[in-house]
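Give me structure tokens for this 267-residue protein.
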Amino acid sequence: MANRGYDVVVDVDAEGDLGHTDLQEDLEFHSSTFEDQTGTSRNKLPASNNGLPFSNNTNNDTSTLGSKRFLWTLSFYAQFFDVDTTEVLRRCRTALFPRSNFLDVLDGNPDLYGPFWIATTVVFILFITGTISAYLASKGQEDFEYDFTLLSGASGLIYGYTGLIPVGLWGVLKWFGSEEGNLLECWALYGYANLIWIPVALVSWSPIKILNWVFVGVGFGVSSLFLVRNLYPLVNVTDARTSKILIIVVVALHAGLSIAIAILFFA
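Here you go.
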């Protein structure tokens, strides 16, 4: 009877006995509002927490939009610095004392946090030690004046080399159809390769030029070996002749960086 729009109310005895129920007295019929409520609920859209209908779909759309990172948002750049201090220190140790391929150490999560601060540290140490070297070379002469062109020179040299050379390398790899490595990994490789220049700069301020050249040579050897060892699997996807040419170009450019450091700051 409920299907016809009625509610059934049954009056049950205290003993729970239905045997003596009088249908005329104990059964009452009332107009049902079930269909009205159902119809009303069908006509209403489910409310959402934000006051918009279809909250689930809306939330999904919002999460989809939130997952998109645009060039002008901080979240776009934050993904390149998604690494903690412990991981950066581990990568620095691996760069100085390599035991495995550095791309395996990155584990698909290359960062720019370490490369940026390594490059910045190298810039300031080159300026400081270069200034000390110049002071020792001019000792006993006229009043010494700081040469702040060393700071701008170090900035242009280190930031330019670390930022532009990986872009060129990545572009060449893409030109030859390589699917290995990405631009962020190339930046990370060159950034962590600069780590050796920190101890080199700290000991290359003496007035003995030949000793400074030896220290710079050691830095060139260690960093070049690091780059060649880790870049070879990337460039090896091309033909043998192209791979050799790319490796030679990488080493030659790195030699140019080393010579520039030696001449500009410790000669």
